[in-house]
Write a structure and sequence with these properties.
alpha+beta, 3 helices, 29% helix
Length: 139
């Protein structure tokens, strides 16, 4: 009896699971990857813009790493701030995984690039969201 239970436990770990955020096997949520070159790299090291950009990057990393399921975010027009009327696209955190956040576009204005993607889920690598944070803060 113990061997049967042990075998069931071991075999259950071998069953493949599908990617979270996928409606079915054929339509997985698209992934936004982190940029290969960090946005702050364009500034001369040691200068004020480089220091300010590095600070924005640090704050962006803190913000992104603290996101959890159920959090609402402004994906365009104020990422990193609570969604306000200035927000062009609102999203909700559906899931998190190692180095990734699954966002679902909940509401987008017609002028937003996310308008045609309402109710769609996208995986974002943490670095992609940090880059968005830095860009939204003027760097």
């Amino acid at each position: 009896m113990r061997v049967g239970v042990l075998a069931a436990v071991v075999l259950s770990g071998c069953i493949a699971t599908r990617d979270r955020g996928a409606a079915d096997w054929s339509s997985r949520a698209a992934t936004y990857k982190a940029p290969e070159v960090q946005r702050c790299a364009k500034f001369k090291p040691g200068g004020a813009p480089a220091t300010q950009c590095a600070e924005a990057k640090y704050l962006g990393e803190l913000y992104v790493r603290r996101l959890s399921s159920g959090d609402e975010v402004c994906l365009e027009g104020g990422f990193g701030d609570a969604p306000t009327t200035a927000c062009q696209a609102r999203a909700a955190v559906v899931d998190t995984a190692t180095n990734r956040v699954l966002l679902e576009i909940r509401q987008a204005r017609p002028e937003s690039k996310w308008f045609s993607h309402e109710q769609t889920q996208f995986w974002f690598e943490e670095g992609a969201l940090v880059d968005l944070y830095v860009a939204e803060h003027g760097y």
